[in-house]
Amino acid sequence: MKLYTYFRSSSSFRVRIALNLKELEYESVFVHLVKDEQTSAEHLARNPQGLIPVLDTGDAMLTQSPAIIDYLDETYPEPALLPTDPIAKAQVRAMVNLIACEMQPLNNLAVLKHLKSDLGQDQDGVNAWYKHWVDRGFTALEKHLEKHSGSYCFGDTITMADVFLIPQVWNARRFDCDLSKFPKIEAVEKRLYQLDAFVRALPENQADNPDK
Ligand SMILES: N[C@@H](CCC(=O)N[C@@H](CS)C(=O)NCC(=O)O)C(=O)O
Description:
Blueprint: E1 2-5, H1 10-21, E2 27-30, H2 41-46, E3 54-56, E4 61-63, H3 65-75, H4 86-102, H5 109-117, H6 123-148, H7 160-174, H8 183-192, H9 196-201
Parallel strand pairs: 1-2
Antiparallel strand pairs: 1-3, 3-4
Bound molecules: glutathione.
Glutathione binds next to helix 1, helix 3 and helix 5.
């Protein structure tokens, strides 16, 4: 499998974690977002949305990290990233969607660029926007964790919620968001960073990171 990825892309980071948890070998193909390689004709042929990640399975080019991770979970069932109980599954998916639908899309590179170049915001304005949506999303997520977390987001087993949490937390820290008011999130973060699958997927550990 080939993963079209960029070290700082949080959606690619999710897929890297899922691939590592399932102990799957893959080749990384780097798409430099700051150089706008995602809008090249070559990349648009892979994903007409001009976004990463894209997973080339050999049979298909898959886009959208939640769909890619569902594919991986169905094709490589161990370890399962979703509980089997329908209520528990919906509760994990609620945390996943809170991050994937209501946080990351508002803070994606294209949105931040639009705020700056087209809507006249300076860097302080962009940072305030970013922090607002992190705060709102994590305030709600903290409540989910108060109810459901154990060692990890949902009890004591790693789920898709953990796969989505870490990249969002990493990104929030990059923008200097104060996460100390989210003790459950910070506690789960700390535990997940003890796991090799999460550490290997970190932006710091990607070959396209210029500081590596
Ligand atoms: N919902 C998509 C979001 C993908 C996405 O936003 N990718 C970002 C990187 S994390 C990207 O390619 N941004 C390029 C741009 O905004 O121009 C997914 O989960 O895969």
